[in-house]
From TrEMBL:
Alphabetical list of PROSITE patterns matching this protein: GATASE_TYPE_1
Active site: C86 (nucleophile), H190, E192
Coiled coil regions, renumbered to chain: none
InterPro entries named among the record's database cross-references: Class_I_gatase-like, GATASE, Imidazole-glycPsynth_HisH
Record key words, sorted: Amino-acid biosynthesis, Cytoplasm, Glutamine amidotransferase, Histidine biosynthesis, Hydrolase, Lyase
A GO molecular-function annotation: lyase activity
Positions of the Glutamine amidotransferase domain: 6-205
Native species: Phenylobacterium ferrooxidans
CDD domains: GATase1_IGP_Synthase
Designated name of the protein: Imidazole glycerol phosphate synthase subunit HisH
């Protein structure tokens, strides 16, 4: 049975994410909530959630001794599948521009900056259900189709290379809703809050062979 490390660094909707992953796994994967570097380094899959400001989340992640190094070993060296959710996706960026400039993991080059709709009627935060535009790339993302997903955020990750964008969302103008590069993927929406479509997405992640 494969083991899935759900990273606990004090910033994320952990309980909901754990329940959703366990349900999606249907007994075929063991989900472990952990910040233990050895457990993370030896995990078969890694999920990084995140809620709040980029700088606070990156600081919290960095303050867990050995955690980023363990994630890097598992994902970048061993090639284990990785999924970032909401701010967990944003932390993949080179830097975040929220409350100043904060360095990110830099696993996918780009910046996290405030969403600025061209339509004044589009409110920020972008909160509620929305449908992805042109989901493509790996089956993990392409399989979402036209199912609406739940969003709640004010900032978005804009990769330097648009080929790393696996789906867009439109809220008074389009911005990235999902990224994918090799064995690394991230989604701006919350699959754990997206009901059956979110569970189906997580089930695909648990079977994803990048």
């Amino acid at each position: 049975m494969q083991n899935v490390a759900l990273i606990d660094y004090g910033s994320g909707n952990l309980r909901s994410a754990e329940k959703a992953l366990v349900k999606a796994a249907d007994g075929q994967s063991e989900v472990v909530v952990t910040c233990d570097p050895e457990t993370v380094a030896n995990a078969d899959r890694i999920v990084l959630p995140g809620v709040g400001a980029f700088s606070a989340c990156m600081t919290a992640l960095s303050e867990r001794p050995g955690l980023i190094e363990a994630m890097t070993q598992a994902v970048r060296t061993k090639g284990q599948p990785f999924l970032g959710i909401c701010v967990g996706m944003q932390l993949l960026a080179s830097r975040g521009l929220e409350f100043g400039e904060t360095r990110g993991l830099d696993w996918i080059g780009g910046d996290v900056r405030r969403v600025e709709p061209t339509d004044a009627a589009a409110k920020i935060p972008h909160m509620g259900w929305n449908t992805l535009v042109s989901p493509h790339g790996p089956d993990l993302i392409a399989g979402i189709g036209d199912a609406p997903m739940y969003f709640t955020h004010s900032f978005a990750f804009y990769p330097d290379d648009e080929r790393d964008v696996a789906a867009w969302v439109d809220h008074g103008g389009r911005f990235p809703a999902a990224v994918a590069k090799g064995n690394v993927a991230g989604v701006q929406f919350h699959p754990e809050k997206s009901q059956s479509a979110g569970l189906a997405f997580l089930a695909r992640f648990l079977e994803w062979r990048p």
